[in-house]
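Q: I have 434 residues here and want to know how they pack in 3D. Can you give me a structure?
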Amino acid sequence: MSTVTVLGLFCLGLCIFPENATAEKVLSKNGDWAVYSDGRVGAFVSYVRGDAYPNAPVNAVTQVPEYTVKGGGMLADTSQPASSGVGQAPQGIVESMRIRSGMIGNIFGIGVRDRIANRTSVTGYIQFWAWVESLDQQKDQINSADVRQGYVKLEGAWGSLMVGRSSELFVRGNTEIDILYGHGYGAGYPEAVNSNGPTQGQSGFGLLGSGFASGVVYATPVLGGLQLTVGAFDPAQLEEAGTRTKWARPEAELTFERPIGGLGKFVLFGSGTYQKVYRAGAPDSNSVTAKGVGYGGRLELGPLRLGIAGYDGYGLGLYYAMEVSDASVDQEGQLRRSDGYYVQSMVVLGRTDISAGWGITQIFMNADDRVVNPSTGYLLNSVIKYQEGFACGAVYHVRPWLHVDIDLFRASFVWYLGQKQVDYIANSGMLFTW
């Protein structure tokens, strides 16, 4: 598994805990100075069984595949039935049990806060992530910590200004739905089961995960429930589409939140991103633009929780925003359009949360993808067409800081030339939060 893919898996969660979780813990306080910490530790038993990644038919004369199956699907070591070497090769079976991290890894965060004026405070915060399973299932491998966030933030009546590494704005509200009502205490879809790192939750199935990046972010004060947040982030290169960048990436998020007569609240949000990349050693006219919009809302009414979200854009990837992916770039380096639709529900019954969700991510072919290879009569590639995921689960909050989860996931994949893959995942684990 490539380093880029592994790092992508790490960029799936925001460090946002559901309302029934404990808040930060103040370790020391001296006047206006305060030192605090937040975090979580835990692990999950994760079992996967289903279809292996599909194959292309083999040419009877050349004994090579007629085309390449590209993008999406679950990657894993598989048991492979014997093949005659001609026609459609057997697909094989995935079956794996791991003891692994959940959607959000083990976290240790520490911050220092002070007041620099009557109505203005300053915070310095750094956050480390780690995981419990070994890299490539080799127990002698070192599990290195990932410095996920590190920033300084000014806050006052005028709003807030953050400089450093923190969560990005594009599809942040979409990701928050999965954390709050879906897999914040769970695991969901693991993607590449042979390696290590946090799972995807619902990301890749109607949900495009928000990531983390260095940037400068300003948020207005909340006015009548409305807040605008704008940021300039370190630009992202897109490999085959272009590795050269010129300008920081602009992103924005607009949110609106209102209470409902003491019974709950509703939240609406919209976000956008824009990133132009250029070919190395080529004129500026040889460029492509990754861009997208995210939107949605969530409702909390008594014990009921409901979130609906979607996104649309070009070159966005499958699992997290600006992911380098065979699904988002064609063979000529042009960006493909994709969209996603996600619905997540949860019912709070005392200490138990019961959740269910569904989502679909679609990839649309470019004109380049429709060119037929005259020597085979097939398209050059069978591109992933859509990924659909159903999730359900239950979390029992033994204490406000101790949580036991069980969650199930059904992942199905379809490619443009007819290949299919269906896999089932069961996860169960325990988390300690503070």
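Q: Anything worth noting?
A: The two ends are 33 Å apart (CA to CA). Residues 3-433 form a domain with the Porin fold (CATH 2.40.160.10).
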